[in-house]
């Protein structure tokens, strides 16, 4: 298995990275920009309810995609910027994302709306309203762990724009085979959990697992035109 698009932190040039604070009706949010030299798209991705933009998949995408003409904007929701440990209700998350959108669209490029876990749900719920070019759903929480009857499939199926789901094979919030048929693509990260971590006994290592994410997103982005 190749990992040609995986980039170690030590290989990442941070000299062009900038951060800006954006006021929203839900409080101050923060965008960390990883610019492409010749951008054709912006990928805006936010974190989940249990972590921040230091998640391994978000960091890897920010390292890899700029070389493919995609400026990556890592978004921290207001609750996270404020130092709170518990995410607010979905409606409040949506308010924060709406407030950020003008800044994400300011470069004048098509914007892919994305996120991991709860952030993926926000991206799906608001895509059509905000005019997103597409949606990237990382570790979409199809249902709470052990509660498949509490499905959130309607959010995913209602995204209304080209959508890519990247899901761990052992994600307790929804395994790939649990996802409904619909107008979306799905990439599986074998053995991966909700954070795409793989067990030490797995036949692929962590770098290879992350490369499945980045390789898949690169190919999908290129297919969007």
TrEMBL record:
Signal peptide extent: none
Q: Does the keyword Repeat apply?
A: no
Q: Which UniProt keywords apply?
A: Hydrolase
Q: Where is this region: Disordered?
A: 1-20
A single MF term (Gene Ontology): hydrolase activity
What Gene3D superfamilies does UniProt report for this protein, alphabetically?
alpha/beta hydrolase
Please verify whether the record's keywords include Hydrolase: yes
Residue span, KANL3/Tex30 alpha/beta hydrolase-like domain: 42-221
Q: Which PANTHER family match?
A: TESTIS DEVELOPMENT PROTEIN PRTD (PTHR13136), TESTIS-EXPRESSED PROTEIN 30 (PTHR13136:SF11)
What name goes with this protein? Hydrolase
């Amino acid at each position: 298995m190749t990992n040609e698009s995986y980039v170690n932190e030590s290989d990442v040039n941070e000299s062009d990275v900038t951060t800006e604070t954006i006021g929203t009706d839900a409080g101050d949010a923060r965008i960390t920009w990883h610019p492409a030299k010749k951008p054709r798209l912006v990928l805006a991705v936010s974190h989940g309810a249990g972590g921040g933009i230091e998640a391994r998949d978000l960091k890897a995408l920010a390292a890899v995609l700029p070389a493919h003409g995609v400026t990556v904007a890592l978004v921290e929701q207001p609750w996270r910027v404020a130092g709170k440990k518990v995410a607010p209700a979905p409606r409040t998350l949506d308010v924060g994302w709406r407030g950020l959108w003008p800044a994400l669209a300011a470069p004048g490029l098509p914007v892919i709306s994305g996120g991991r876990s709860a952030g993926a749900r926000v991206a799906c719920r608001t895509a059509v309203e905000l005019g997103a070019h597409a949606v990237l759903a990382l570790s979409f929480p199809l249902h709470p762990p052990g509660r498949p009857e509490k499905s959130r499939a309607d959010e995913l199926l209602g995204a209304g724009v080209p959508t890519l789901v990247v899901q761990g094979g052992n994600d307790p919030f929804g395994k790939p085979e649990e996802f409904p048929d619909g107008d979306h693509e799905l990439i599986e990260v074998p053995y991966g959990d909700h954070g795409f971590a793989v067990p030490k006994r797995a036949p692929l290592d962590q770098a290879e697992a992350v490369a499945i994410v980045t390789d898949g997103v690169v190919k999908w982005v290129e297919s969007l035109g």
